[in-house]
Write a structure and sequence with these properties.
The structure is a single chain. This protein is mainly alpha-helical. Helix 18 (about 380-395) runs antiparallel to helix 19, helix 20 (about 420-430) runs antiparallel to helix 22 (about 465-480) and helix 34 (about 700-715) packs antiparallel against helix 35 (about 720-735).
Length: about 1000
């Protein structure tokens, strides 16, 4: 290696950038105070991004911050998955070994996907949530390391970032809420063309208020003069400054190149083309140094010294002299670790690489590949496989490239870098026909996709087939969100299988196609599943067969619940046991338990679902556990046991966050909203619905969140907001996958909005659509609220002349539907009686006795809003039937209770109706003597804001508040802002002082903070 080498072109004086440096230093101060910071630094190539980052990093170190830098790596045209994060985390671990070990304790196997030296990566199940789990663990790791130390995480050259790196960065920017952490990412702005993958990421990050974006401008003429003076250590000639400024246009790197060229007397006749400008000093090097520069240019962003020596094949003294010349001319520079070389500026590397002849490029890549294969220790272990794949591919040697690319695809999959896995598998498919037959025959399946390998062959002895590559690629595309590409691959595979008799493989691909069609909202996926089912019919039990049956059962549970769904679930369990497919068995058992509940065998079904959840937890099958946390509380809620569902749902949120199960978390939020709504906790229900919208990775759970917000808005009298949220829900749901659990709640809200807006005919049209679709077995939880909404609408419109036409027919339809719809639980027995009472009211035949029975039913249930509504109906019936003192007294008490609930929930339509009825009957709704006014109420704080203020007073951060109250950090932040406004204070400390002064929380013990 080299000792110190004198270079001349880098200015020792840091020029300009005062505003940008102030912004970065301000962000550092905020981070040091415990407020995480996220910044993007963009600018054209050569404008000075790296120099600014170096200056800021040095300043941060002087302020005792720990700076960890990672750069995106370009090898040919390929980026290494998570490369900048791996490098930065390694630096962070070296700087804070004890803190890092403590923060990552218990998660080393998963974090090893980013940092292999932590251990062997776990062989956990691969699914759409795998990458999200890794991202969540990384975010929590950084927050914990940054709890006691200010940490600056610098990620450079995002324009080269692989998709997995971009996704992880976006996740961090969205979710980091605590810790003394500053994340700074740089990118080359002039590379971000219209189709560049960074473009949508930048657009997404621009919408986040927590992300600041800096654009580095070119130097002014004055700054160019100061830069030249720093390079030359003397004041430059003004005319020369003018000329260099004009030719460089203020680009710092070009200023440097031109200044050195002028100093060395090679400026005359210099071409104005960028490429010539960049190459002029390379071409002035000795031939041996030029050759070394060409080798380094093709080797990647950084080339290790020993690898360079193996590829250059020079005597060591000659190699060192060539390197000394290149470093002395400031073309190359030694890496920070002192074990390799890189170009001082990537623009020069790109120019040198572009200047290579095609044959020269192939030869250099072959040399690199052969050197690494001969001595694998020449490159870091975690990059070896990826680099070999890239070198052989760019050497245009299909025989060597195909196995190397397949090995790299396995590494990408194990790191949850599914986008990179897909790219590598597509590259393998491209190489397949070009590779010799003997090479293909020697290949074996190196990684397994879901249930695909057990398709009647032994992977250890059966050669890899092209269809195997397609299977891996289809699943990788589904996991990384590239569903269009995955669907295209699945369709092509099925076309190829038309010429082969391979029913198991064909069935497997039809299942994939069904999932993709549903995810893309192209259809309900049933025809694809039916094709798969037909293909496996009559075949011996297999894992594929069990998987097909499990998917059919799950689909039927959601779309056509009934005896066929039940039978499919039972067969799936039986077949999974026969072939020892435990995961499929647990999944099918969970479906079977839900179908039991829906069919009326409530206790047996709930017990089975609870058993599956516990078994999946013990066996570590996170995918099934997440689904159990969604479905078990949902079934509890479906039979009116919402209070039992809530603690399970809150437990499920913790689990889903821990394992990064984004869609499971969103469905849990949605179900929690339902349960809280039923229990009369509407503020919390709205927060939970917003959580579903904010955490979902796919469209349908977002639609469910919006629909629940529409329901709450409608009950609170905001028809416009209900209509807006309904529209959002319909957009997310799409129109190609009709499910009762979607169609019926949508129909109910549509009827409610239409009724609130006086559009009776539209409400009837929505009812007709729902009745035409029918109520499959087990859908009473959705059917009864819809029938009730329609019956209530008709009853409310009874006095309207326009409603008379067709009313009898509508009421008859509703009565017939109510007669056929099952109940199966006390809550739906009560709804049936309520619906029939509303039909009586629509015909003018309701009585106090009818409504008294309904009230009696609901008094036994834990549904305060429903009880308040039927109490108002009973009060009206009492007042209309008789005006005696006893009836008036009872009606007054009923209205007082109903009004209290309406006021508490913010149910304005119900509160208004209670007030109008009391006014019309001249009733005074007396209340119990008022207690002394709570200071919190006098300040206008809601009950939720009081909870938040209690935790603020205890010093909790927004994220800690969110975790304790089961709300999102963003919602916690909004509550804190509202509290500060209502208290008229500027900060959290003042708010705590006000709470203490008023004695708001004199003796309320706070739960201990969670450890770790």
């Amino acid at each position: 290696m080299l000792g110190p080498v004198e270079t001349r072109s880098v200015s020792p004086v840091f020029v300009g950038r005062t505003d940008e440096l102030d912004t970065l230093n301000d962000a550092l101060a905020r981070a040091a105070a415990g407020e995480p910071q996220a910044l993007l630094l963009g600018g054209e190539a050569g404008v000075g991004k790296t120099r600014l980052v170096e200056e800021f990093a040095a300043a941060a170190c002087r302020r005792s911050a720990v700076v960890a830098v990672g750069g995106c790596v370009e090898i040919g045209a390929d980026g290494l998955p998570f490369a900048p994060f791996s490098t930065a985390l390694r630096a962070l671990r070296d700087a804070l070994p004890e803190e890092f070990a403590t923060a990552g304790a218990g998660q080393e196997e998963e974090l090893a996907r980013l940092l292999p030296e932590l251990g062997e990566a776990t062989s956990s199940r691969h699914d759409e949530q795998g990458m999200a789990r890794l991202f969540e663990l990384t975010a929590r790791l950084l927050e914990r390391v940054a709890a006691a130390h200010t940490v600056v995480l610098v990620l450079e050259d995002l324009h080269w970032a692989d998709a997995s790196t971009r996704h992880l960065l976006a996740y961090l920017f969205r979710t980091l809420r605590t810790g003394r952490l500053l994340v700074l990412a740089t990118y080359r702005a002039d590379d971000i063309h219209r189709r560049h993958p960074m473009r949508p990421l930048l657009a997404e990050l621009d919408r986040l208020r927590t992300v600041r974006r800096l654009e580095l401008a070119r130097f002014t003429r004055e700054e160019v003069g100061r830069q030249i003076a720093g390079i030359r250590a003397a004041e430059p000639d003004p005319a020369q400054v003018d000329e260099i400024f004009e030719r460089s246009d203020g680009n710092a790197f070009f200023v440097e190149e031109l200044a050195v060229a002028a100093t060395e007397g090679c400026c005359t006749g210099l071409s104005d083309s960028l490429r010539d400008l960049l190459l002029v000093r390379v071409e002035a090097l000795p031939e041996s140094a030029q050759g070394v520069a060409r080798i380094v240019a093709e080797g990647g962003s950084t080339v290790e010294y020993r690898l360079l020596a193996a590829v250059a094949r020079l005597v060591e003294d000659d190699l060192i002299e060539a390197l000394r010349a290149a470093v002395g001319a400031n073309i190359l520079t030694a890496t920070a670790g002192g074990d390799g070389y890189r170009f001082r500026h990537s623009l020069v590397r790109e120019a040198v690489a572009d200047d290579l002849l095609p044959g020269e490029r192939f030869r250099l890549n072959r040399r690199y590949a052969e050197a690494v294969e001969t001595d694998p220790t020449l490159v870091p272990a975690d990059a070896r496989v990826m680099r070999l794949a890239s070198y052989w591919y760019h050497a245009h040697d299909a025989a060597r490239a195909l196995p190397a690319v397949l090995d790299a695809s396995v590494v990408a999959r194990r790191r949850h870098a599914y986008t990179e896995q897909l790219r590598l598998l597509e590259r393998a498919m491209e190489l397949w026909d070009a590779a010799p037959e003997e090479v293909r025959a020697a290949l074996r399946p190196v990684d397994y996709t879901d249930v695909y390998p057990p398709c009647g062959c032994d992977p250890a002895t059966t050669p890899l087939r092209y269809l195997d590559l397609m299977a891996e690629a289809a699943v990788a595309g589904r996991f990384c969100g590239e569903r269009e590409r995955a669907l295209k691959i699945a369709k092509k595979a099925l076309r190829l299988l038309q010429d082969e008799h391979d029913p198991l493989r064909a069935a497997w691909f039809w299942v994939q196609r069904s999932r993709l069609v549903q995810a893309l909202a192209r259809g309900d996926g049933w025809q694809e599943l039916a094709n798969a089912q037909e293909l496996v019919r009559g075949l011996p039990p297999s894992e594929v067969h069990a998987d097909v049956l499990a998917n059919v059962a799950s689909w039927s549970m959601l779309h056509q619940p009934g005896s066929e769904a039940f039978a499919a679930a039972e067969r799936a369990v039986e077949y999974a046991r026969m072939v020892d497919a435990r995961e499929i068995e647990l999944n099918a058992q969970l479906t079977l338990g839900a179908l039991m509940v829906d069919s009326g065998d409530v206790e047996t079904g709930l017990a089975e679902m609870a058993r599956v959840k516990q078994a999946a937890l013990q066996e570590g099958v996170a995918h099934v556990v997440g689904r159990a946390y969604v479905n078990l509380p949902s079934e509890l809620d479906s039979v009116g046991r919402s209070r039992e569902a809530v603690p399970i749902l809150r437990e499920g949120l913790v689990f889903a966050r821990r394992f990064g199960l984004l869609d499971s978390e969103a469905w849990i939020w949605g179900n929690l909203s339902d349960s809280l709504y039923a229990l009369g906790k509407w503020d919390e229900a709205a927060e939970a619905a917003a959580g579903a919208l904010g955490s979902a990775a796919s469209a349908k759970p977002r639609g469910a969140g919006a629909l629940r917000l529409a329901h709450i808005a409608l009950a609170r009298g905001d028809a416009a907001e209900a209509a807006r949220q309904l529209s959002i829900a319909l957009t997310h749901y799409g129109s190609h996958d009709p499910m009762p659990q979607v169609l019926l709640p949508v129909g109910r809200i549509t009827i409610g909005v239409a009724a609130e807006e006086g559009r009776l005919l539209d409400a009837r049209v929505a009812l007709d659509r729902a009745l035409a679709a029918g109520f499959p077995p087990g859908t009473q939880r959705y059917g009864w609220p819809l029938l009730l909404a329609a019956a209530t609408t008709e009853a409310d419109a009874r006095a309207l002349p326009a409603a008379a036409d067709g009313r009898t027919e509508v009421l008859d339809k509703l009565a017939e539907a109510a007669r056929k719809l099952a109940t199966g639980a006390p809550v739906w027995d009560a709804y049936e009686r309520w619906t029939r009472a509303e039909l009586h009211r629509a015909r003018g035949t309701d009585t106090a006795a009818v409504w008294s029975d309904v009230v009696t039913d609901f008094e036994c249930l834990d549904r305060p809003y429903d009880l308040a509504r039927v109490r108002r109906r009973l009060a009206r019936a009492l007042l209309e039937e008789a005006a005696g003192d006893d009836e008036r007294h009872r009606a007054t008490e009923l209205l007082r209770l109903a009004g209290a609930v309406a006021d508490h929930l913010g149910a304005r339509p119900l509160a208004d109706a209670v007030g109008r009825l009391a006014q019309r009957a001249r009733l005074t709704l007396t209340r119990a003597p008022r207690r002394a006014l709570d200071p919190a109420e006098s300040l206008g704080l809601t009950s939720r804001e009081r909870d938040v203020l209690r935790l603020v007073s205890a010093g909790r951060t927004n994220r800690q508040i969110a975790e304790e109250l089961f709300i999102s950090p963003k919602t916690a932040s909004v509550h804190v802002s509202n509290i500060l406004s209502k208290l008229g204070v500027a900060g959290r400390g003042e708010a705590a002082a006000v709470a203490h002064r008023l004695g708001l929380f004199p003796a309320e013990p706070l739960p201990a903070e969670a450890q770790g």
